[in-house]
Sequence to fold (183 residues):
Amino acid sequence: MDRLARSHQPSIDSVLERVSTVLLQTQRKAQCGTLDAASTDKELSELITNLSRIEGSGTNIPEDLIKKSIQSINDLKQNLPNLIPEQDLINRYDQTNPNPHGKGRHQLDIDVNKLQQLMSLGFTVKKIAEDGLLGGKIHPNTLYKLLKEHDLQVRSSYSTITDDQLEEKVAEYNREHPNAGLF
Fold:
């Protein structure tokens, strides 16, 4: 196998990292009621494919552990419909509000509380918008506009440190590491 072909195959570490990430995201989405069965099924199928590739590759991971993981993911795929609440099967974006200006498209009815909940769980605005975690794919700018209309800030989810505290931390770091950033 040449070097180019090997570089396109995922490493064992990257496969295991992806398994962990997808399962955590699936759990988060199920808890928030934003689980999309089709995209999750596709992601789980990809996990099974990648785990099957490393199954007989002579790794130090016991094969029975890999087989059990594949079986568990298959079980999760079969139970996906049970994880989606009945009311969430309806597309929320079929319901829109008339544009108050009388022109253009009707406005989407986006649940601000659900948006805040997703952001508090660590989802970015871009991820929420592009993955359709609010019931349908929308442009990230739509969510930023909604946040601005409701006086909500994305920055508030990053840190509660004040500007003065930040300046003190930077000054302290610069004192401890005087050559940091120099070439």
